Amino acid sequence: MAKTKSECGPAADSAAPDVQNTPTIWERIDAPRGARTTLSHERIAEAAIALADAEGLDAVSMRKLAESLGVATMALYRYVNSKDELLELMTDAVGTASELVADPNDWRAVFREAARRRRETALAHPWLPAAQAQVPTSLTPNRNLALERMLAALEPLPLTGDQKMQLIRALDSYARGAADGEVNQRTMLERRGYGADGDVRLLLRSNMQWLLRSGRYPLFAKLVTDGLAPVDAVGEFELGLEAMLDGLAARFGI
Amino acid sequence: MAKTKSECGPAADSAAPDVQNTPTIWERIDAPRGARTTLSHERIAEAAIALADAEGLDAVSMRKLAESLGVATMALYRYVNSKDELLELMTDAVGTASELVADPNDWRAVFREAARRRRETALAHPWLPAAQAQVPTSLTPNRNLALERMLAALEPLPLTGDQKMQLIRALDSYARGAADGEVNQRTMLERRGYGADGDVRLLLRSNMQWLLRSGRYPLFAKLVTDGLAPVDAVGEFELGLEAMLDGLAARFGI
DNA sequence: ACAACGGTGCGTACGATGTACACAAGGCGA
DNA sequence: TCGCCTTGTGTACATCGTACGCACCGTTGT
Fold it and tell me: What is the pLDDT confidence band of residue A37, given thresholds at 50, 70 and 90?
């Protein structure tokens, strides 16, 4: 994206500290708005998410979104500076943290919950990984909330601030990778004609011809023909999650 | 994407086994081609990657790519059925596995190498995560090669095929998440005007106003004002990696 | 040597997209 | 009630992916 027409000519000195001072959408979003409020950031995000859930991320165009809101296309631009910002809005909005069930003092329970939530959100909104990859974001309200909760859980432990962040980022890396991977796989299954909750082995089977013909992957081929059990997605996610938690706990002595 | 004009009308029965038999590009790619070969999959992938590296993924349009190859736009479509397939080509081509240095019998060394390679590839081609998210792929030649190598490393161990796959996927999840996260962060830094290898704390500083004004993230705010050390990206990646390896090894008793 | 044929590259055209810009309209403070 | 600033509208343009039909050429069968 970033197809702004003006390309910002002579190029902004990329070393200057206060250059690029464009406030993020999150700083603008809380400002009170004037008259005639038929639209709102919330309504826009909600409609966009509904559209993406129903017809995929590609279907989320400014025109279609505006139409689904009963509004002219350009009206959206009073709330969003670019489509990228719309995506930012969407990725934040799907992560509304709702109530937490984990014991806030049990850090492993809190981390587990955060990881599971991330996975579930991604599976519920399969366009999420693509949106996040297209519009790099962190420091978004809901992500910060999750961060804050994890920091709270680590509060009683004897860790430096840097260590806490390392812990959180490591866990987050796993959760992100696992969630994205799973979405990836489901999307692939769907595109190839099997339902999103089909069996991965169907995919393997349909591509086996090519796999076997080039004898380049003998071990993998053997594995496939010997027969793999159906993948237990939740179980596998939990396994990696526990492995990561164990490994981190051991490494930090907690 | 997937903007094919014909939308495939009456809808293909999504349960039928041999429906959607469109061969992947990987099955077509090895077929011998006829006359006048000014183009090739390799040349196309190479040029596309160069373009993406130089000007970002958005700059990779069929027109620009064709121009950079000194060829008409539509010529590309003799090698690629859609832009999605071009992205598939690109994501596979950046992963050319080159020589392996790890002792092929030391599974941890092999896994480490695979994870590091993944991270390095993503950092060298920051558009990769976006491309992968946009066009779900696995079963691509180079990814299968990596898989094969890991399977080989696990060969001497007393594990079932399913366990091997679990091990590999868990490790891959971490590597993927960590790499994507790092790329994400660098891209953000760049967009905000700090160089890609700038300090994350600059980003925090520039958004602190908003963070502090809403007193919603007290712990995080405290962390930031107390001062965080500059992030050691490699060290942090390695830490999570070792934690994951330890945790997995323990869990599988290997 | 030559003809024909199938694979290769080209040019044009169309619908859709993001968004710049100038204008209309509608609610709030004076 | 009047003005004014904010919100919503309409039009226009560059660019995108790609369908379609034609031109070209290397190979192969005679």
Answer: confident
Provide the pLDDT confidence category of residue B13 given band limits of 50, 70 and 90.
very low
CB atoms within 10 A of CB B246: 18
Output the DSSP codes for A128-184. HHHHHHHS---S-HHHHHHHHHHHHHHTTS---HHHHHHHHHHHHHHHHHHHHHHHH
Distance A34 CA to D6 C1' (A): 5
**Cβ of A251 less than 7 A from strand C:** no
Residue A4: burial class (beta carbons within 10 Å; 0-12, 13-18, 19+): exposed
Q: How far is CA B104 from CA A222, B30, B154, in A?
A: 19, 28, 9
Q: What is the pLDDT of residue B98?
A: 73
Do residues A115 and A175 touch, judged by C-beta distance below 8 A? yes
Q: Would you tell me which residues 106-125 of chain A have a C-beta closer than 8 angstroms to some C-beta of chain B?
A: none
pLDDT of B15: 39
Instruction: Please state the rounded mean pLDDT for residues B183-206.
Output: 85
Across the interface, of A147, A226, A242, the residue whose CB is closest to B161 is A226
Region of residue B65 (left: phi > 0; alpha: psi -120 to 50; beta: else): alpha
Closest Cα of chain A to B117: distance in Å?
16
Contact A129, A178 (CB under 8 A): no
Distance (Å) from the alpha carbon of A8 to chain B's nearest alpha carbon: 12
d(CA A240, CA A217): 25
